[in-house]
Structure prediction request, 613 residues.
Amino acid sequence: MRRRHALLPLALLALTIAGCHKAKPDVGAPPTQTSNPPPPPGTMPPPPPPPAATGDAAAATTARLAAELGNVIHFDYDQDVIKPEDRPVLDAKADIMKANPALRVRISGHADDRGSDEYNLVLGNKRALAAKRYLENKGIDGSRIDVTSLGEERPVDPAANETAWAKNRRDEFEILAGGDRLVAPR
Amino acid sequence: MPAFVCLIWFPAGTLRAQDTVRVGITYQPGVRPGLVVLPAPGLDSIQAIVARDLDFSDRFEVIALTQPSTGGGGSGTQPLNYAFYRTLGAGLAVELSPATGSFIRMRLYDLAAEKIRGEVTLPLERSGVGESRMAVHGLSDEIVRLAVGQIGSAATRMLFLNNEDKRIWRVDSDGAGLAPVSPAGVAAMSPAWSPDGGRIAYTQLSRDGGKPIVIQTLGSGTRTLLPLKATTQNITPAFSPDGRSLLFAQMSDAGVALYLVNVQDLCCVERVTGGRFAENFSPAYSPDGRRVVFVSTRAGGQQVYSMSADGTDQELLIPFDYGETGNSNAPEWSPDGTTIAFHREVRGAPQVWTYDLSGHRAKQLTSLGRNEDPSWAPDGRHLVFISDRTGRRQLFVLDTETNRTRQLMTPFSARLPAWSRRLVRSQ
Prediction:
């Protein structure tokens, strides 16, 4: 008890300092520890643990991050190259996975229905692998990423036109584990 | 070179009764005789099935009778009026008649020689419905064998993927007998027949992302998974001609390679193609089992290669011009070993082609709509393939000798057909 009372003024001070900065919507409770042991000479201090959210805020954060993880990326016809506009989408996923080490995902690659049915399974796999390699290059352990291909078997738009085909050439991302309570990357 | 015969109608009275009187152009790769299937009182269903099978064989001009009683025959007791049927342009006549018990007798008449060319007596369910239809198709194939000395393909079935429920279905060669084969609620792909027609293999698209290969026994419905790691993705299975092994493609982080598995003992999986970051898939054996044709992306696009069955001696099989020739997929070796059927993109749409292994010539067979995934009939001249020429993907059968094409109607979109070997043994 005495120790708690001793830390209380420091905690209030931290709250005051935090209140002077622009608040982030996914920041939860204030930090309960205000001082860390000094880092060894020549090293950067380790990042503080992410703030733990509680209640509705935590649920909202988890939902937002899960939605971000679920964002789809798209490909050009018969290609498995990550487009420049999709790199930020994958970067965001990598950041979320770094902040949530228990998180495991499955990437499923898809194709439009113009190629050979069986080649489209192969192409879907290549697209899923392209995203997996991108995340690995961002520091995510490959063992946390499953890949599968559904070829042309699960179109989001069954129409036979350029608009539909463009929607169908995609990678989808699904949380397999560790997604019950997600914390936001710093 | 096939010969074409043009027969012209002459004014009445200038021809005798036995002269041939037909109008039109007849493809004649040897002989394509006119044939009548005589009326068969009490056996109407069987007579209709046989007549249609013989028409679909594309080896005869099946002549419809408008005045069936005039020429006699058909009961097995009346003498046949050979001259009358010759005036219709027929060279052959098929007579079906009841025999003792549940047996049916078939006689094949040679109308020019005025004699019986062959006769068989078979136990047949006279209604010609359900499973007994296959026995009737077997009789049709027997008629083809007696008439032209070559095997028919009536007693066969096709497997295909129903694009709506994602199950494997089957249909008889004449379009009857439509039925699901793989279980409901399980998405499947790439069906393949075992050589004896008793088992099928296919890829299952599991909810966990894995793609096991299932071997299903058709009689019992027993399903067996190949001994593969659950999370692996395995596609495009193909039985060896002796039925003991299965080749398939496995997708991994390093590419797509072909693997061989012993399906008798469900063991001994071994990799037969190497190479990182290339895709090898859609294998198909030669009839003698010594070589395999498959698709590889090693040169960029998808093209057709061949190799020894153990994976050695890999080479480009069907020539292409890089950047010019479209992707080639779905190769299948003809039952006589002389030809590869495949599909190749032409101006953005897949078309069915054949490649003559001795003459080293590729020939485009289709041009209307998208046409893909050809599979050979056991007669080595018919192909089943998928076409969207009528607005949605349907099964079509093409006679490679005459280019005659017929549609097998299904009430849903169909994909990835596989034609069985003969399911009824010859007499």
User: Anything to note?
Assistant: Confidence is low (pLDDT under 50) at residues 1-43 of chain A. Chain A touches chain B through 21 residues (CB under 8 Å).
